[in-house]
Design goal:
With about 325 residues, the chain is an alpha/beta fold. The chain has a single domain, classed as UDP-N-acetylmuramoyl-L-alanine:D-glutamate ligase, CATH 3.40.1190. About 30% of the residues lie in helices and about 20% in strands. The protein has nine helices and 14 strands. The strands form three sheets. It has an eight-stranded mixed beta sheet with strand order 4-1-9-10-11-12-13-14, sandwiched between helices. The chain has a four-stranded mixed beta sheet with strand order 3-2-7-8. A hairpin with a 7-residue loop joins β7 and β8. The longest helix has 17 residues.
């Protein structure tokens, strides 16, 4: 098998068209909107591609201009979209984001009965995971439709049978399903992954209130080899059976838009996890785990500095310059 045919990461999930008011008037009063691509899995796909990884993105889109826009945008960023499906009887989803000038933005989803919500096991193809090293999934896709949780579960099982590593970001969206179903479904998927990437609030939602160290221990007992706990402005912490590793935050002066920060964090971590994870021993050294956490912290922080979910995501050259303290020559 030629290295040129190897795909570093496969990810599956819904991408939508994002509309945002052009000014700060808010949705009710603003007549003009910008249009962009958005979606947790495609955010990660673009982030990893800019960090030098080959990524295959899978989803189901409507046969409509919005679906065409999503495919052209992702392929233009270097993401392999050749396995994406189209659905004539359902539309591509859209959503609106409204920045308030304080706190997190308001988000309004229009994704019920979307094409991606129609994903089902009969859609799955062996080629989806062909020549791939790693699968990344989130907890959003299982919430979308009647059979989408089954699809994600089977994808994880298939990836494991192929010897791939798997990362799972719960990416909790409580607007999409009731708490009991969300908690039960997400907990059932954790044993199928190698890397679990919750935030503190998500950890508390899944397990109740505990000390930070206890979250690491409890999640490791479920089966993952690495737990990556996102601490927001306090940085992040990684847990393996051997050690706990902390990484300080990358400090920014202000937060413009926090949406997409977790996806940027995930792409940063996965990019180095793929380079350093020792598959035979099923572990990663403390030094390399810290490096992956530090890169993740940088990408997560930088994602808060621009509107949009992914447009400002840095390249590997830009990240290395930040890590090395190098300044760009701009003129």
């Amino acid at each position: 098998m030629s290295n040129r045919n190897i795909v570093d990461v496969v990810t599956i999930g819904e991408s939508m068209v994002l509309f945002q008011p052009m000014t700060e008037k808010g949705i009710k009063y603003e007549p003009l909107f910008t249009k962009a691509l958005a979606g947790a899995e495609s955010n990660v796909a673009i982030g990893l591609t800019r960090l030098g990884k080959k990524v295959r993105w899978i989803s189901k889109l409507g046969v409509d201009p919005f679906g065409d826009f999503i495919l052209s945008t992702l392929s233009g960023e270097g993401v392999d979209v050749s396995h994406a499906l189209r659905e004539k009887s359902a539309p591509t989803a859209v959503y609106f984001k409204e920045l308030k000038g304080y706190g997190d933005p308001n988000v309004y989803y229009y994704r019920k009965n979307s094409a991606a919500s129609k994903l089902q096991p009969s859609d799955m193809q062996d080629e989806w995971l062909e020549n791939a090293r790693h699968l990344h999934v989130t907890g959003i896709t299982p919430a979308l439709g009647e059979h989408t949780a089954e699809v994600i579960r089977q994808m994880m099982i298939n990836a494991r049978e192929k010897g791939m590593t798997i990362s799972f970001d719960p990416n909790l969206r409580r607007k999409l399903w009731d708490d009991e179903t969300a908690r039960t479904t997400l907990l059932s998927l954790i044993p199928l992954c190698d890397v679990f990437l919750p935030g503190v609030e998500e950890a508390e939602f899944l397990l109740g209130k505990h000390e930070i160290e206890q979250y690491g221990e409890l999640f490791l007992e479920m089966g993952p080899k690495v737990i990556v706990l996102k601490l927001g402005a306090e940085g992040s912490i990684g847990f393996t059976k051997e050690e706990k590793v902390e990484a300080a935050p990358y400090t920014v002066s202000q937060v413009m838009d926090s949406v997409g920060a977790g996806d940027a964090f995930a792409s940063g971590f996965i990019s180095l996890f793929l380079d350093y994870y020792q598959r035979e021993e099923q572990t990663i050294s403390n030094i390399h785990l810290r490096q992956a956490l530090e890169r993740a912290n940088i990408l997560g922080a930088l994602a808060t500095q621009f509107k949009g979910d992914w447009e400002g995501t840095p390249t590997v050259k830009e990240i290395e310059a930040i890590v090395n303290g190098e300044a760009d020559i701009t003129r």
